[in-house]
Amino acid sequence: MPTGKTRKIGKLGGLAAVAVFALALSVSGLASAQDATPLPYEAGNDLAALGGGIVADGSSTVGPMTEAVAEEFGLMMGDAGGGDVQIEISISGTGGGFERFCIGETDLQNASRPIAEDEIANCSEAGVDYYQFEIAYDGIAVVVNAANDYAECLTVEQLNMMWGPEDTVTNWNGIDSSFPDAGIALYGPGTDSGTFDYFTGVINGEEGVSTTDFFPSEDDNQLVQGVAGDENALGYFGLAYYENNADQLKLVSVDGGSGCVAPTPETVGDGSYAPLSRPLYLYVNAESLTRPEVQEFVRFYLANAALLAADVGYVASPAQASIDAQLKLEAAIAGDGTPDSSAESS
């Protein structure tokens, strides 16, 4: 059961214990099933008959989440005697992914920010309708080299001094006089990244506005390696990448105006890690959602997003938001839903 990139099996550990049914739940059945936790996965199609391929692209932050779901989906299909669904997952950044998604090249779009106005227009021009689903929350981690023993907490204003487009401070002692007289080496996501858009928006006041004097990459692993290899470095990326490399990096707390707060599942979930907490999204091509293999994968995704979010270092969305997403999906599959693109382009 090839499912794109491989990964270590997470907390689901295989889903042989998950009940699989051939008949879809009705929307009313979903609504009454439970109201405290996301609803359990139940198949709406004959799993043994599933085949074909699913293509996903987009955010390097959301990519690991989709990879985790794809791996577990493959295990579930194998346990249930299901068919062969090929899942291809690429990572070209949120912006790069939307370029493909909005001309119909991909079925799924991983996004670390909502779709932008120009992307909405591109999708509309190409006749691509879509549904948006919130899948988890993430904090953007600000990190320095493990040998850095002075940068414990930085304010939004200090981050702006480093990352702003004008009068950028390039030495550590320009940020704080107690810091050493050493040049700052900046590492951050490339301009196609939703993380870049979000960070620049909340730190510099406008999405996409940033100093150009930094090492950019759409591959967060390259950013990890860059900061880990440079004693004067500072970088930012999704919290999960820090957690997977905590032995090589030092996490910096951020003061958004209410004191220094480090990103943790608790502070990201309750919003106190401000302003660098954000929701993560999965966009689904409405035409692709008419195919049973896409229906089943997205149904499985939303049912297990909460557990797998924790497995890959993110924070689960509130239970009611997860249930609302599941209800929205079932309505879309039944032909009763209205694509989000219809409202956004009107």
Kindly state the mean pLDDT as a whole number? 89
CATH topology annotation of the largest domain: D-Maltodextrin-Binding Protein, domain 2
Main beta sheet? 11 strands, mixed
Number of domains: 2
Unreliable runs: 1-35
Number of strands: 11
Derived from helix and strand composition plus strand pairing, the structural class reads alpha/beta
Q: What would you call the shape?
A: elongated
**Helix-strand topology string:** HEHEHEHEEHHEHEHEHEEHEHHH
Tell me the fraction of residues in β-strands, as a range: 15-25%
Helix content: 25-40%
CATH architecture of the largest domain: 3-Layer(aba) Sandwich
CATH superfamily of the largest domain: Periplasmic binding protein-like II
CATH class identity of the largest domain: Alpha Beta
Q: How far is the N terminus from the C terminus?
A: 41 Å
Oligomer: single chain
Radius of gyration: 21 Å
